[in-house]
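[step 3/7] inverse_fold.run input=structure_tokens len=316
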């Protein structure tokens, strides 16, 4: 599928969100001008009538589906039904109504949470179906994985051009810093900055610190998504990651150093650790559409911390 971004009518669901802002920047950098960002107050994508109305109103040629009901371990544990239903219905209905509307292409984002709990590291796309996901976020992960099933089935039966990417945990400026729903990096940044300012001698961190995670700057993820939209036309899943892992204990110490917090870290082992290890094999993304992450981890953390300290009021 040839793409001239200046001529495409693009809908970016979730375009007003954290990752969405970077995707919009990347699209505009490549010449896209006709972009629609549906807001929940106007188009609740969980509702089929709203999805149909969005297609009628925007008449897109290409949809990038980023909208999701997301959160950290605590939010997933408290809302398993909502996370499953909302994420499943948004994706399934956007693909079905896109097919019916004659959409040229749909790009959907899955999640690393879709992988089995004990996937061998690095995670390869062929391992996606070799077990059940980690229990605390399985409903969310499985809802997202169903989009891959639908994408493959619709390509086989209808010739519908959709792709599904599987990004790792994202971070960067304008992330969610609400401690009730945030992921680990923004949560640690906020905790350490506030503890430093209050002169607190201890900060409590969830879990044992032993699991490992991989993190990708949202600007890198946005580049991967737009490149895949431009160059990739298969329904085989594609990992999007930075190709490294770091233990949560080491991550916390790194963020404490970068935020200039010098107190003690207390690990609350009564809180869940989540999946033991996470790191993706990203060779398929390089082979299929020539993408590789470019932002160094410490560089990206410094940018994120500086953004939070400058934009504290709007971030909270």
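[step 3/7] decode complete -> sequence:
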């Amino acid at each position: 599928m040839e793409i001239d971004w200046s001529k495409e009518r693009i809908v970016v669901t979730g375009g007003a969100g954290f990752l969405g802002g970077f995707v919009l920047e990347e699209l505009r950098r490549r010449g896209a001008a006709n972009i629609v960002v549906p807001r929940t107050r106007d188009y609740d994508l969980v509702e089929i009538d709203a999805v149909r109305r969005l297609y009628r109103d925007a008449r897109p040629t290409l949809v990038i589906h980023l909208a999701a009901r997301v959160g950290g371990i605590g939010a997933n544990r408290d809302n398993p039904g909502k996370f499953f239903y909302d994420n499943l219905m948004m994706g399934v209905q956007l693909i079905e109504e896109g097919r019916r509307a004659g959409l040229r292409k749909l790009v959907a984002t899955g999640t690393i949470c879709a992988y089995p709990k004990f996937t061998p590291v690095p995670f390869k796309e062929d391992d996606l179906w070799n077990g059940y996901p980690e229990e605390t976020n399985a409903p969310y992960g499985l809802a997202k994985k169903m989009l891959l099933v639908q994408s493959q089935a619709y390509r086989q039966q209808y010739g519908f051009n959709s792709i599904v990417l599987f990004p790792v945990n994202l971070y960067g400026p304008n992330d969610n810093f609400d401690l009730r729903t945030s992921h680990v990096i923004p949560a640690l940044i906020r905790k350490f900055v506030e503890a430093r300012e209050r002169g607190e001698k201890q900060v409590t961190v969830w879990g044992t610190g032993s699991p490992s995670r991989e993190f990708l700057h949202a600007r890198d993820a946005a580049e991967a998504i737009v490149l895949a939209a431009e160059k990739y036309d298969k329904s085989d899943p594609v990992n999007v990651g930075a190709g490294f892992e770091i233990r949560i204990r080491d991550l916390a110490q790194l963020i404490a150093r970068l935020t200039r917090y010098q107190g003690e870290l207390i690990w609350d082992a009564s809180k869940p650790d989540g999946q033991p290890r996470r790191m993706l094999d990203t060779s398929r993304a390089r082979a299929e559409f020539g993408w590789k992450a470019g932002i160094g981890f410490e560089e990206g953390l410094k940018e994120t911390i500086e953004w939070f300290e400058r934009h504290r009021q709007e971030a909270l």
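[step 4/7] annotate
The first helix runs from residue 18 to 29.
The chain has a mean pLDDT of 95.
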